[in-house]
């Protein structure tokens, strides 16, 4: 079995994630200004975006190649990306995906930032979506950077 790696993309690599989405027949695109994350087994097998919003992050574009589904890749990719993020994380999903996200610690989001609230209302005109959120602790600090006395 091929070893999987989880890593963020930088700069020009954004096109790699967009190419992955197109290969999968998806209309998704990587979020401009967001941190782009991928799972690789040689080639990209999953991807997502984590964009700063208000005092947290918005998770979008999570997609796993159908041949790689059912192996926990989406959950591991989310956990790898969120290990670097502080503050709450929000996402919108179809109701049938609730159990998946609940296993990862997401629950109903009642107080969305205004920008996401407006976007959700716009999306809900044509799609049945629910807003979920997860509180994040600050990323682990490195030894020697502790400011407590």
TrEMBL record:
Gene3D superfamilies: 3.40.630.30. It holds the Pfam family Acetyltransf_7. Residues 1-123 form the N-acetyltransferase domain. This is GNAT family N-acetyltransferase. It comes from Pseudomonas shirazensis.
